[in-house]
């Protein structure tokens, strides 16, 4: 359903600050797959997601979706089938617009936008109904501007928006890293429910190894622009975090050294 | 005397309000600092004056002004989004080009509209006084545009335009090309500025090549004054605030005149008027002054 073939990306090629982000990445996902992606800082995880979303064009290689090649399709044209949540809770919503307006923007995902009123009684009722599922009381605050919400509330709203308008792929880039642990847990739970309901294909980047192994159906580990481990759901069941670190050391011939990841494993 | 001054400010405030709404649309809604206004405002005055002198119906002349103003905005939009020229510079380029175009349209630097029909004379023919005709015509035009603009900014397209100014990355991830929204917003804003120019030309009875100089600052001053009075950020209130701001700006200016400022000093007065609210002091006396004069708008 989604496939990356030999995708590479170098930032500032030939310049002193040249950065290799992806090296010949191959990846193939089926409908309903839930992939978790781990790897130290700078491994290329965000670049991978940006390339799938169309924010960045790869230097080489191609991207296929549902049998069509989409390598050159710009981000706004991919929005019809790609929903995403960014790490920064501020990034996924328009702060100066109301909750209802933000949802209306998302519901028209990938569609032509015309001169009809964006909100009416029906859409407001529908938005109330889906906001209720968050259990945050946002359904009573439809007309408040999103800037009034906390980071966690904004991220929950962004998640709802990312799956409105029926996208097929959901991209989550460390989307709970900025939240407190309890809110993060709630958002993860919500994500599981939504993903199951809508049968989405998900790519989720996280630096929490435990969570990566517990969430989803498959885990890949990246390092210096390459996918170095690919663990399917059968293998994941037996794998522990120390196993994972040990396998990293075996494949790469060095220890994993990323404070943020290692802190999580203590 | 005072009544005269106030009705005069009201008339002028309404005539310039559409230009201020255009500035609100670019600076505030789209977060795009568009300077095209200094050229599109006199463009509207020039083309409507020229057409009225040639016997065209004033309403048709005004529609033509809107159309040409929109083209000017479109041009700035293309310079910025397609040719990747910085926003400020793109506006200055269009504004400069328009100076020559406006001179071409007028054939000289000043066109008088003595004893020519205008929407004001048409209303006077219904038996209204000059002031009555002006307030009625300008009031109706401004109200109509405000209602249309409010409506538009709540449509699906309008929401996308607002989101582009607020969070371009997000709106892109929802399937809207920000550059299309920027072009649309610039076209609308400069259409409004040109319409405003057409109203002012009919009101003062002439079009002049220099009448656009500093227009952007006048618009900005109106927007800022409006925001300091109408605090509610909802679109309907914000656009009302801009119109109110335009009227109050004219009142301030005529007060400055009565205080003995020379008309040639007014741009200096206006320039200083916008410094305090636009300044983003980190601390010190200016921030104190800002807190007093514009509470809730201190530097971020
Ligand atoms: N916009 C950019 N410009 C230049 N270099 C970048 C940019 N984005 C990422 N990089 C570089 O590409 C590499 C991969 O980055 P990234 O994909 O953000 O990794 P991760 O998300 O795994 O931390 C890093 O070396 C990073 O410095
Ligand atoms: Mg990253």
Largest interface, C-beta within 8 A = A-B, 37 and 24 residues
Unique ligands: adenosine-5'-diphosphate, magnesium ion
**Regions with little confidence, pLDDT below 50 for 5+ residues of chain A:** none
Write down the secondary-structure element order of chain B.
Answer: HHHHEHHHHHEHHHH
Principal-axis shape of chain B equals globular
Mean pLDDT of chain B: 93
Tell me which CATH architecture of chain B applies here.
Answer: Orthogonal Bundle
What is the name of the CATH class of chain B? Answer: Mainly Alpha
Q: What's the story with the biggest beta sheet of chain A?
A: 6 strands, mixed
Rounded mean pLDDT score of chain A? 92
Order of H and E elements of chain A: EEEHEEHEHHHEHEHEEHHH
* Largest β-sheet summary of chain B: 2 strands, antiparallel
Percentage of β-strand residues of chain B:
under 5%
Helix content of chain B: over 70%
Distance between the termini of chain B: 43 Å
User: Helix proportion of residues of chain A, in percent?
Assistant: 25-40%
Question: Structural class per helix/strand content of chain B?
Answer: mainly alpha
- Taking all Cα atoms into account, the compactness measure Rg of chain B is 19 Å
> Number of DSSP helices of chain A?
10
Shape of chain A: globular
Adjacency order of strands in the biggest sheet of chain A? 6-7-8-3-9-10
């Amino acid at each position: 359903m989604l496939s990356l073939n030999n995708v590479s990306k170098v930032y500032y090629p030939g310049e002193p600050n040249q950065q290799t982000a992806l090296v010949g990445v191959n990846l193939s996902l089926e409908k309903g797959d839930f992939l978790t992606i781990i790897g130290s800082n700078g491994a290329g995880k965000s670049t991978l997601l940006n390339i799938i979303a169309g924010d960045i064009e790869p230097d080489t290689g191609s991207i296929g979706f549902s049998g069509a090649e989409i390598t050159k399709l710009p981000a706004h044209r991919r929005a019809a089938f790609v929903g995403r949540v960014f790490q920064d809770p501020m990034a996924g919503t328009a702060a100066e617009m109301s909750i209802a307006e933000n949802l209306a923007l998302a519901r028209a995902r990938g569609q032509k936008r015309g001169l009809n009123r964006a909100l009416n009684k029906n859409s407001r009722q529908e938005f109330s109904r889906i906001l209720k599922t968050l259990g945050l009381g946002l359904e009573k605050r439809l007309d408040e501007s999103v800037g009034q919400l906390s980071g966690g509330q904004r991220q929950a709203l962004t998640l709802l928006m990312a799956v409105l308008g029926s996208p097929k792929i959901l991209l989550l880039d460390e989307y709970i890293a900025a939240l407190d642990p309890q809110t993060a847990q709630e958002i993860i739970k919500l994500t599981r429910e939504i993903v199951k309901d809508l049968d989405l294909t998900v790519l989720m980047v996280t630096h929490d190894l435990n969570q990566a192994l517990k969430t989803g159906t498959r885990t890949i580990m990246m390092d210096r622009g390459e996918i170095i481990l690919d663990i399917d759901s059968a293998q994941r069941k037996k794998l522990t975090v120390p196993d994972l670190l040990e396998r990293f050391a075996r494949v790469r011939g060095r220890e994993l050294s990323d404070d943020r990841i290692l802190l999580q494993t203590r | 005397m005072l009544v005269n001054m106030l009705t005069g400010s009201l008339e002028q405030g309404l005539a310039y309000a559409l230009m201020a709404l255009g500035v609100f649309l670019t600076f505030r809604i789209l977060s795009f600092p568009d300077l095209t206004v200094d050229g599109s405002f006199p463009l509207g005055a020039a083309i409507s004056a020229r057409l009225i002198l040639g016997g065209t119906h004033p309403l048709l002349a005004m529609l033509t002004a809107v159309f040409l103003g929109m083209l000017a905005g479109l041009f700035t939009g293309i310079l910025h989004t397609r040719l990747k020229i910085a926003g400020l510079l793109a506006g200055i380029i269009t504004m400069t080009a328009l100076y020559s175009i406006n001179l071409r349209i007028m054939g000289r630097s000043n066109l008088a509209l003595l004893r020519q029909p205008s929407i004001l004379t048409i209303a006077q023919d219904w038996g209204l006084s000059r002031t009555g005709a002006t307030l009625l015509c300008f009031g109706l035009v401004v109200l109509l545009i405000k209602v249309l603009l409010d409506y538009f900014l709540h449509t699906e397209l309008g929401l996308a335009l607002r989101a582009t100014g607020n969070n371009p990355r997000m709106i892109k991830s929802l399937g809207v090309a920000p550059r299309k929204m920027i072009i649309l917003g610039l076209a609308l804003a400069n259409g409004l500025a040109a319409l405003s120019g057409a109203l002012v030309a009919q009101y003062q009875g002439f079009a002049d090549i220099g009448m656009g100089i500093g227009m952007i600052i006048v618009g900005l001053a109106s927007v800022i004054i409006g925001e300091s009075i109408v605090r509610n950020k909802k679109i309907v209130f914000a656009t009302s605030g801009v119109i109110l701001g335009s009227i109050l700006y004219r009142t301030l200016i005529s007060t400055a005149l009565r205080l003995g400022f020379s008309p040639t000093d007014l741009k200096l007065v206006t320039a200083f008027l916008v410094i305090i609210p636009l300044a983003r002091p980190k601390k010190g006396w200016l921030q104190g002054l800002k807190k007093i004069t514009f509470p809730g708008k201190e530097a971020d």
